Amino acid sequence: MRCAVGCGQLQRGTDRGYGVGDVQGDHQHPTAEGLSCERGIRETKNPRGEWLTEPLIRRGDQLVATSWDVALGTVAAELLKAMADDPDTVAVLGSGQQTNEAAYALGKVARGGIGTQYFDANTTLCMASAVTAYYDAFGSDAPPCTYDDIPEAETHVVWGANPAVAHPVLYRWILDSAMASECRLVVVDPVESETAADADHHVQPEPGTDLMLARAVLAQRVESGGIDEDFVENYTAGFDRLVESLPDVQTAAETAGVSRATVDELAAAFDAKTLLYWGMGINQSTHGTDAARMLINLCLATGNVGPGSGPFSLTGQANSMGTRVCSSKGTWPGHQAFTDDATRERVAEAWDVPLDRLPSSTGPGPVGIVDEINRGHIEACWTVATNPAVGMPNATNVKRALDDVFLVVQDAFRSETVEHADVVLPAATWGESEGTVMNMERRISRVTAVSDVIDTVRQDIDIIAAVGNRLADGLFDEPPLEPEPVFDEIRDLTAGTPADISGVSYERLEAERAVRWPAPDETTEGGYRYYDDGSWSFPTESGLARFSPASYRGVPEPTDPTYPLLLTTGRRAEAYNTGVRNDDETIPNARVHPETAGQYIDVVDRGKTVVESRRGSVTVTLTPDDSIPTGAIWLDIHNPEVNELTLPAVDPDSNEPNFKQCAVRLSLPDQSSPVTRDGVLRSDTIGDD
């Protein structure tokens, strides 16, 4: 399982040495039944990254080999020193690349051992807006629908996503269903993506206007009488308030850069049983939560909330779902409210820690944590299976922040973040680890090791437990830990919650391969959520699904005469996450419309130019591509250079950054500006606010 689709894999260890020798799809796994994608196979069997094989410690300007005792002792001493002043002087950043057990253990250390509010994970960089919208509408995280609904749908609307590249196995199911008689595929994307090329209808709004387009479509449905009045009246709340907030259809269409006829055609897609999928094109925006809310509103208003239909956010990382359910990042395990007194007491008792040690706030998100470092409020930071030096916006500023704290990096590969570390803890990776993960449709699967690791590498959960016990004595059993008792601890804490996995055991997973939550007992598993035989009930106070109004604020950094082009980002088929283990592209490739390329031919030198924002500049190769809108530049979000450019503005409700739109310009390599952040020269310093 390499991305959030959750395709089951059969792995075999190497005949010599250690590592994964062969990988193939598992035909007995209920998720993909043997299907797999080339990228997932390749990066599991033959990752291209530089493996970390021993602990490292900084001596002057160099990272040098050390022992585990020295590494762990140094980490514990520095974290304890920071904690003595204030637990909030320590930050912890986790990942959707950990097992459920490791993610849970890291949250236990951060929230219960340290007691810091500054704990988050890179899942906030991709899914937080969708999660917030789900909670607002349904009172619970995660899609109501499952993969079983895909062949039942009559219309598939893919909005701000490119599953043909990002989720190829899932996309095969979508395409198979859409090609059936009387079915169709509708794609909403400013770019003519690989997915859009297959569409029966492709809608191309102006970049950054998805929210306005969705409001236009909903206003059209209201105007034309296309509302499921029975469903709205009996199972929802807040519809009248939503209607009052909607814009004029024509005005909204013009703002989105589409015709009224296009709005009418897109609105008609919801007449049939419709699955509405969305991805980072919606989420990674300062209005990502509002846009996701509006897509959910569309499903609610048209009655598309039942088997074969509904709002389906597409997750990227392999265990983003498990991190949200288990790690105590935004909620306590099982999606329990962070501020609920009874839940806090239950967690403190289960962890055997003082109740007043648990932080009262979930924190400001990863971008906010970097801001707190820059303000001098955080002294130490521990990153686990994540690469913030590349994966966060305004990367130059992030690297500067990482250099200003005592940085502990725990990873399997030598990432860009490792180069800023004071201590490096080498961890096992897929094929070497034991535990469980969850895919985007809520299925839990086992992860098993087919290879031992060398003595100088340890499993994530064992490293976390070793650090945790040094910070809070007795937080875990003495490592190495068996993951099953840790999973049982998670099961106990989720019993009776919206994300109940108490009926899922290792024994059951061995027999069934994968089980979808909620699973409150050992024989049942979750299907379509909130629906039972023609009736709906939602885990909100009223039991009703909730509509949310939203207003459009525009992109946070519009183009202007100085920076006249709009940067947008997306995935390449060859790369995933920050490319540490699967990518060898060094110079980013910028795709621009031929008309745009022609306007800037004077700043292209032997096929290369410089893309420059107010935060930094990046040398790129330039490729004319008429699938890109005029006036826009498309770059791979996961290239190590690209986030030198992007904007650290965040969604006010979810703290998810705006990776998708920022103002840029092109210049010749020897004429690019030295600015790195809002006009501040590289030789200058940035104040503490």
Automatic annotation (TrEMBL):
Q: Does the keyword Zinc apply?
A: no
Recorded GO cellular component terms are: membrane
Report the InterPro entries cross-referenced here.
Answer: Asp_de-COase-like_dom_sf, MoPterin_dinucl-bd_dom, Mopterin_OxRdtase, Nitr_red_NasA, Prok_molybdopt-oxidoreductase
> Where in this chain does the record put each Molybdopterin oxidoreductase domain?
52-469
- Protein name, entry field: Assimilatory nitrate reductase (Ferredoxin)
Disordered: region residues: 669-689
**A Pfam family:** Molydop_binding
